[in-house]
Amino acid sequence: MNLLKDMQMPAAKGAQRRKDKRINSVHRVDYSTGPIEFSKMTKTLSAGGIYISTPNPLPPESRIYMRIHFDPDQEDFIVVEGVVRYSQPRRGMGIKFVNMREEDRNMINTHVESHWWQEA
Description:
Layout: H1 3-8, H2 13-17, E1 22-24, E2 28-32, E3 37-46, E4 49-53, E5 63-71, E6 76-88, E7 92-98, H3 102-114
Antiparallel strand pairs: 1-3, 2-3, 2-5, 3-4, 4-7, 5-6, 6-7
């Protein structure tokens, strides 16, 4: 083990690419790629994307449409389009938001900032 060498190593790739603060979050997300709709739970959330826990993730580059619920007791949700960036079989998939409305991005940012203690 060489501590000096380890300290000089660049940060992990994901951390270098990530520009939005990300939190651990558990929210219901309904998503579809066409006529079939699924309902799963989120694992992480940021203004740039989301990670959905599912044993059957979609393949990378799949375009999906999502309804992310912030409060299960109210109609507090956003509808957003996304593209699957990576899939982990039997675990889940990372999705990048695309064509997002500014008010929806602001809603996510507000949610992330108000849950700062859950930072991922």
